[in-house]
C-alpha cells in the first residue's frame, strides 16, 4: 500500500512538472542479470512518463540520468550516495538472489527436451496438406517440405510457433499441391528438433485419405452415440411423465441460440503431449521482493 501511495504521489509530481491538468501513464522497469558461468552480474532500472524516458539508472557510473529537464530535480535527489549504494545492492545482491532461486526451482523445466508428435492431415483434396508438429520443447523447431528428396519453398506457408496449454509448443506448415502432383511426386514433411532424430512423413494421396476417413468415422460414431442416448432419454421421460400434446404457448417462448462455433479443429494425433513437471517452491510465501519506491 505504501508503494502504491508513493506512485500516486509521483504521478501528481510529474503532472505538475509537465504543467498538465490530467496525468499520463507512469511506467517503471527494472531487471537484474546473472551469468552462471562467469558469475558476472548487471542491473538496470528506468522510469517512463507519457511514453517517454524520464529517468535512467547508470549502475556502471553510479548515477541517475535525466533525459528531460523535468527529471533533473529527482536525479539530484536520488544521486545521494546512500540511495545509490542501496539501489546497487538491490540490483546486484537481492534481485540476483531471487533470480538464482527461481532458476534452481525451474532448472528441470528449462533444461528438459520433449520430442514433437507429427501428423499430416488435409480437410479435402482441394485444400493444402498440413504438417502439424505438437507437444515439443524447447520452442526451436524446423519444418520443411520436400519433393523427390529436394527441399521446396514455393507454395509452402509456415505458421508461427504457438504455445500449448501444458508448456509445450506446436507449429503447422501448409503445402498447396494438386491431387495429380500429390500422386505423381513423392512429397515429404521433415521435422527437425533438438530432441531426437528427424521425423520424415510421406504425404502420398492414399495415406492422407486414410486420415480423412478416420475423421469421418469418428464423427459418425459420435453422432450415432449421441442419437442413441437422446432416444433413450426421450423414452424414459415419456414413460415417467406420460405423453402430452403440444403446448399452445410453446411458440411464445424465447428461442435458444443455434449458432455453432465458427471453427472446429480436430488434431489427428493419438499421442498425448508430455506433461510438464510443475516447479516446487520451498515455501508458499516465497515471492519476489520489489525494491523500495522513492518519492520524486
Automatic annotation (TrEMBL):
Segments of this protein annotated with the region Disordered: 271-296
Pfam families: C1-set, MHC_I
InterPro entries: Ig-like_dom (IPR007110), Ig-like_dom_sf (IPR036179), Ig-like_fold (IPR013783), Ig_C1-set (IPR003597), MHC_class-I_related (IPR050208), MHC_I-like_Ag-recog (IPR011161), MHC_I-like_Ag-recog_sf (IPR037055), MHC_I/II-like_Ag-recog (IPR011162)
Signal peptide residues on this chain, from the entry's feature table: none
PROSITE patterns, per database record: IG_LIKE
UniProt cross-references to Gene3D superfamilies, sorted A to Z: Immunoglobulins, MHC class I-like antigen recognition-like
Transmembrane segments: 216-238
Keywords per UniProt: Glycoprotein, Membrane, Transmembrane, Transmembrane helix
Domain Ig-like: residue ranges: 116-202
A GO BP entry: immune response
GO cellular component: external side of plasma membrane; extracellular space
Protein name (database record): Major histocompatibility complex class I-related gene protein-like
Amino acid at each position: 500500500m505504501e508503494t502504491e501511495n508513493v506512485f500516486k504521489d509521483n504521478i501528481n509530481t510529474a503532472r505538475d512538472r509537465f504543467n498538465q491538468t490530467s496525468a499520463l501513464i507512469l511506467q517503471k522497469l527494472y531487471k537484474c542479470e546473472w551469468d552462471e558461468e562467469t558469475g558476472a552480474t548487471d542491473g538496470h532500472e528506468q522510469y517512463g512518463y507519457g511514453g517517454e524516458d524520464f529517468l535512467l539508472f547508470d549502475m556502471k557510473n553510479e548515477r541517475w540520468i535525466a533525459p528531460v529537464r523535468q527529471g533533473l530535480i529527482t536525479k539530484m535527489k536520488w544521486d545521494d550516495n546512500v540511495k545509490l549504494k542501496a539501489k546497487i545492492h538491490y540490483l546486484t545482491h537481492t534481485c540476483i538472489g531471487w533470480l538464482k532461486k527461481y532458476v534452481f526451482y525451474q532448472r528441470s523445466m528449462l533444461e528438459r527436451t520433449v520430442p514433437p508428435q507429427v501428423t499430416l492431415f488435409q480437410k479435402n483434396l482441394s485444400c493444402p496438406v498440413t504438417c502439424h508438429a505438437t507437444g515439443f520443447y524447447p520452442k526451436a523447431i524446423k519444418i520443411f517440405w520436400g519433393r523427390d528428396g529436394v527441399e521446396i519453398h514455393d507454395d509452402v506457408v509456415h505458421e508461427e510457433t504457438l504455445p500449448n496449454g501444458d508448456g509445450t509448443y506446436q507449429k503447422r506448415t501448409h503445402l498447396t499441391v494438386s491431387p495429380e502432383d500429390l500422386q505423381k511426386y513423392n512429397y515429404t514433411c521433415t521435422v527437425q528438433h533438438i530432441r531426437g532424430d528427424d521425423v520424415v512423413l510421406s504425404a502420398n494421396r492414399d495415406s492422407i485419405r486414410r486420415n480423412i476417413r478416420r475423421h469421418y468415422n469418428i464423427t459418425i460414431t459420435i453422432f450415432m452415440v449421441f442419437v442413441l442416448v437422446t432416444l433413450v432419454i426421450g423414452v424414459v421421460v415419456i414413460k415417467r411423465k406420460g405423453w402430452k400434446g403440444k403446448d399452445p404457448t410453446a411458440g411464445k417462448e424465447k428461442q435458444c441460440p443455434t449458432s455453432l462455433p465458427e471453427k472446429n479443429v480436430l488434431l489427428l494425433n493419438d499421442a498425448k503431449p508430455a506433461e510438464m513437471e510443475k516447479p516446487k517452491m520451498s515455501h508458499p510465501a516465497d515471492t519476489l521482493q520489489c525494491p523500495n519506491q522513492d518519492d520524486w
